[in-house]
Amino acid sequence: NVAHGLAWSFYLGYLRLVLPRLEDSIKAFCETRKALCGRGSRKLLILVPLNANISHKLEEEDNNIRFYGNLPNNEIDRAGVQGRVYKHSVYSVLDEHGEAHQCVVEYATPLLTLHSMSQESSAGFGEPERRQQVLLFYRTLQEILEHSLECRNRYKLILLNDEDEDDPRFLSKAILRHLQQQE
Amino acid sequence: NVAHGLAWSFYLGYLRLVLPRLEDSIKAFCETRKALCGRGSRKLLILVPLNANISHKLEEEDNNIRFYGNLPNNEIDRAGVQGRVYKHSVYSVLDEHGEAHQCVVEYATPLLTLHSMSQESSAGFGEPERRQQVLLFYRTLQEILEHSLECRNRYKLILLNDEDEDDPRFLSKAILRHLQQQE
Ligand SMILES: Nc1nc(=O)c2ncn([C@@H]3O[C@@H]4COP(=O)(O)O[C@H]5[C@@H](O)[C@H](n6cnc7c(N)ncnc76)O[C@@H]5COP(=O)(O)O[C@@H]3[C@@H]4O)c2[nH]1
């Protein structure tokens, strides 16, 4: 089950490394950029779209989302690559009143692998199985993160149901709903 | 089968992105650092140790290996992270005559996931299965790369058998053997 391994990989090779450092990165950003200073924005929002349709830039998905900048780079030596860079992007999301809310948000990168694998005939699974694999990825990751002391309270997993994708404000609304839960 | 998904992830999320750019990065390095200019060093050497024992710095494995520098950063927008950085480390390897050979080399990072998973009881597999998974990873990756036009001739997969690990020059000898094959 590909999704099981990708969820473990995402935790062991990424979230477990970066989430404990997130608070410090956000504090540094708040001091220089005067944004992300509120309590509600101290978590990494991780987007998990059920259809595995992932954009590389969130502003291309929804006009109410703008790229705001990047958190400072984290450099970690990993498997021979010295100073491998880990970083997150900050986005500004406009609500219905035109007010901007900054947050650290990104898609769950392994879904790109699921998407590409479903299109490579030699990879062993196709589009019908992909949705099942995304759900398995989400549930496995949720389970792992709930038991992780290093990641506790530092993330929010956002499962995106694609039925509402026709709404051009679908993504900003989903993000805002979760941001408001934190405040 | 975790290794199958990790091999696809390593190809789709990394090698397919970075190998086509490797030649340009090496040329830029050769111009500024006057090293890696020979034809034999235009490939990424990918180390696959059967026991999944991975170091984060190769010089810690073998005194005849030294860190030489990093290739220039490649920045690619990926899944919401803007300007995500991809880079490789360059190492200098001394042969038996004391002559130094530079090369771009790193471990296959997904083996870190296999190693950590074999130690997490809730991940579903243990140390006995791990070696099998490393072999499956190696064979799957080899198969994928042989059919990839974008990656053709730009890499060398080096399977490291751990029986010779007692030799403190094990790693440098393995790397040199493969470098000499290219020249
Ligand atoms: N958003 C995000 N930002 C990151 O910096 C990052 N680094 C890893 N990941 C995701 O975490 C998981 C574990 O990573 P690992 O390094 O073991 O495998 C990685 C690693 O073996 C290789 N790879 C990817 N980027 C690099 C890189 N910059 N340097 C070396 N190897 C890399 O290719 C695999 C798949 O990468 P992604 O498909 O981008 O997703 C990974 C993966 O799902 C990231 N996700």
From TrEMBL, chains A, B:
Record domain STING ligand-binding: where: 1-183
Residue window of the full protein shown: 158 to 340 of 411
| Stated family | Belongs to the STING family.
The entry's protein name is Stimulator of interferon genes protein
Localization (cell): Cytoplasm, Perinuclear region; Cytoplasmic vesicle, Autophagosome membrane; Endoplasmic reticulum membrane; Endoplasmic reticulum-Golgi intermediate compartment membrane
